[in-house]
Write a structure and sequence with these properties.
Elements: E1 4-6, H1 25-36, H2 38-41, E2 45-49, H3 55-62, E3 67-72, H4 75-87, E4 94-98, E5 110-115, H5 145-152, E6 156-167, H6 172-180, E7 184-196, H7 198-203, H8 206-212, E8 217-220, E9 223-235
Parallel strand pairs: 2-3, 2-5, 3-4, 5-6
Antiparallel strand pairs: 1-4, 6-9, 7-9, 8-9
Helix pairs in contact: 1-3
The structure holds S-adenosylmethionine.
S-adenosylmethionine binds next to α3 and β3.
Amino acid sequence: MKPRLVREPLPEAVAETPAALQPSEYTAALIQVLQARRDCVRGASVLEVGSGSGVVLAALGALGAAQLCGIDIEEDAVSSGMLLLAELGHSEAAEFYLGDMWLPVAGRRFDMVVANLPHFPMERADVPGRLPTWSAGGASGRALLDPFLEGLDGHLGEDGRAFITHNAFVGLERSRVVLARSGLEMRSVLKTLVYISPEKRERMTNAVMRIEDGCTIHCYGPYAFGEMHVVEIARAGQSLR
Ligand SMILES: C[S@@+](CC[C@H](N)C(=O)[O-])C[C@H]1O[C@@H](n2cnc3c(N)ncnc32)[C@H](O)[C@@H]1O
């Protein structure tokens, strides 16, 4: 897909966020961390890859970010994000692209990058109530996570920081190794359990469930919960607070 700067919500955009784009507990955890880090946000240029409803950018705008850039691969998401930021008075600072991952911002750097990417270990599938692009991270869960981590260094400013949601069951250590190749470090700043719906559980890659059950996935009869972290990433040697 050729990246496209979207200047106005697409004509067919609906005034309300479609149910499929409604924020999740991942979004809530990410916002919780950003609220506690308002010192990093104030005056910053921020990018969200996979901006969905736009609510994370809206929270960053409320915390005083100076520039808000969103990228999403779904037209509905780009339109919803634009509408939300306009409604909340952040239009001047906002910029949205319809496109894939880093392509729309090639060559650009930001003070802060945030992401709550699809990284549930399952093949692309229809999950009731969500678009197929919302959660699926391929069999390993890392189909988008790895390219994101590999490209991050090229888009972070000198003292830049990233905050991302990260399911523990797709491998925090693996991410550490990928980041270290480009001189970046990470640490977990929030750890919580998220509910895994039956629809997602039945589509989850068997091998991941087999290895992680009892470690980072906890099943109680028909109910399952997975360990999720919000991770902070910065250049090695910069203090990760
Ligand atoms: C889990 S949702 C998070 C959305 C947002 N943080 C929120 O809470 O509303 C992931 C988002 O990533 C988008 N996405 C999936 N693949 C993408 C890609 N290759 N490039 C950009 N965005 C992508 C999806 O369309 C979806 O809006």
